[in-house]
Amino acid sequence: MNATTTLEIHSAEDANRKAIHSDMISPRFYTTDFDAMNRLSVEPVRAEWDKMMAEYQGDNNHDHFQRDEAFAAEVSEGMAGLSPEMRQEFLDFLVSSLTSEFSGCVLYNEIRKNVSNPDIKQLMTYLARDESRHASFINMSLRDFDLGIDLGNLKRSKKVTFFKPKYIYYATYLSEKIGYARYITIFRQLERHPEKRFHPIFRWFERWCNDEFRHGESFALIMRANPHLLRGVNTLWIRFFLLAVYATMYVRDHARPMLHEAMGLESSDYDYEVFRITTAITRQVFPLALDTDNPRFRRGLERLFAISQAMEKAKARGGVIGRLQQGLCAVQALGTFAGLYFLPVIRQDISPQVRMEPAW
Predict the structure, then answer these.
(1) CB of 195 closer than 8 Å to CB of 59
(2) 162 beta partners
(3) Among residues 18, 74, 108, 232, which one has the fewest Cβ atoms lying within 10 Å of its Cβ?
(4) Is 26 left (phi over 0), alpha (psi -120 to 50) or beta?
(5) Whether CATH 3.30.70 fits 12-63+70-288
(6) What is residue 6's predicted lDDT score, i.e. its pLDDT?
(7) 263 phi and psi, to 5 degrees?
(8) SS3 (DSSP) at 149
(9) Residue 285 burial (CB < 10 Å; 0-12/13-18/19+)?
(10) From CA 90, how far away is CA 193, in angstroms rounded?
(11) Are strands 160-162 and 288-290 parallel, antiparallel or unpaired?
(12) What DSSP designation does 349 have?
C-alpha cells in the first residue's frame, strides 16, 4: 500500500477527508506576515509590473474554464476502461490538484484582505481569481463522480502553516513554475498521443498552465525588485526550497506510477523533464540550480521514495514496533535529505531579462 492509496476515495466523505489530510507530501495551506508584505516595493520593476497588471486585467482566460458539449461523453468513454487501481490514482490526482490550487486561492485572498499596499492587493486579487477558477473546474470533474469537495469546510478544517514572506516567495514561485512545467509536459504528450487522453480535463492544460506561468512571473518580479532576497544567506533558503519541491514531487509521482503509464509516460523520465524545464525557467531569478543529472542526486531521490514506502508500511503496522519503524524512517529521510542538500549545485548568472514567455 503506497502513500496515495492509504486513504482510498470511494465517497464524497473520503474525498473531503483526503483533501483535509496533512502529511509530508500533501499540499498545505499557508499564512504569512501581512505587515511585512505591506512594506513591499516593486518600484525597481515598475514598467514590467504595470504591463503584467494590464495582462491580468485583460483576463485572456476568462472563458477558458467552461466545459464543452463533448466533456461528459469523453468522461464516460475514457473512465470506463480504467482499472480500479488506476481510477484511484486519477481521483487522488484530482483531489491533490484541487487542494493545491485552492491553497493558493486561500493564501492570496487572505493577503488581499490584510494588506493595504495597492500593488500587492491588486496582484493578490487577480491570483485568487485565477486559482479559484482552477479549483472550481477540478471540483466539477470530481462532482461527475459524486466526489465534490466542500471548499468552505476545507478552508475551515485544513491545517495552516505559517511561512515568512520570503519563504512564500520562494515556495510559491517554484510551485507555480513547476506547475507550469508539469501541466505543459502532460499536455504536449497527450497532444502527440490523443488516444491516451483518458479524461477531457487534460485538454484544458495548455492555457491553464499559462496562468501558472504568469503567476510565477509575478513573484519573480517581486524578488527582482528586492534583490537582497537572492543573495547571501538567502541562497541557502533557495537551495532548500528547490530540493524540497523537487523531492516532494518525485515521491508523490512515484507513488502513483499508473497515472503516468496511462499517458505513455514513465514517472522518472517525466519528473526529470519537469525539473529540466523548471531549471531553465528559474534562471530569471535564482543564482543557483540543482544538478538533477548527478547520479548521486538521482539515487538520493530514489532512496527518499523507498523510505516513504517503508513509512507507510510502518503506519499500517501500528503498535510499538510500527512507531519505532516510523521514527527510524524519519531519521533516514532527514539524513538522505541532508545529503542531497549538500551536493554541489550549479552556479548561474541571473538572466538580465526578468520576464519570460511560456515557450515549452
Answers:
(1) no
(2) 31
(3) 232
(4) beta
(5) no
(6) 55
(7) -90, 0
(8) coil
(9) buried
(10) 18
(11) unpaired
(12) P
Cα separation, 318 vs 191, in Å, equals 45
* The one-letter amino acid at 54: A
User: E strands within the chain?
Assistant: 29-31, 160-162, 288-290, 345-347
Give me the pLDDT at residue 3, please. Answer: 39
Nearest Cα residue to 176 out of 235, 103, 243: 103
Would you say 181 and 274 are in contact if contact means Cβ atoms under 8 Å apart?
Answer: yes
Q: Is residue 27 within 8 Å of 98, Cβ to Cβ?
A: no
Q: Is 347 helix (H, G, I), strand (E, B) or coil?
A: strand
Burial 236-275 (b: 16+ CB within 10 A, else e): ebbbebbbbbbbbbbbbbbbbbbbbebbebebbebbbbbb
Nearest to 263 by CA among 200, 198, 209, 206: 198
Task: Residue 335: count other Cβ atoms within 10 Å of its Cβ.
Answer: 12
Report which of 116, 113, 137, 136 is spatially closest to residue 125, judged by C-alpha positions: 113
User: What cell was used for 115?
Assistant: 494588506
* Cell numbers that stand for 137 in this block: 473546474
Cell of 69: 458539449
- Cα 72 from Cα 70, distance rounded (Å): 6
Adjacent-strand bridge partners of 347 = 288
The amino acid present at 312, given as its one-letter code, is E
- Radius of gyration, alpha carbons of the chain: 20
d(CA 79, CA 259): 12
Q: Block means of pLDDT (10 residues each) for the chain, length 360 residues?
A: 58 91 80 93 96 91 84 87 90 92 93 96 95 93 93 90 94 94 96 94 90 94 96 96 96 92 95 96 95 98 96 89 92 97 94 83
Which residues 6+ apart lie within 8 Å of 118 measured at CB? none
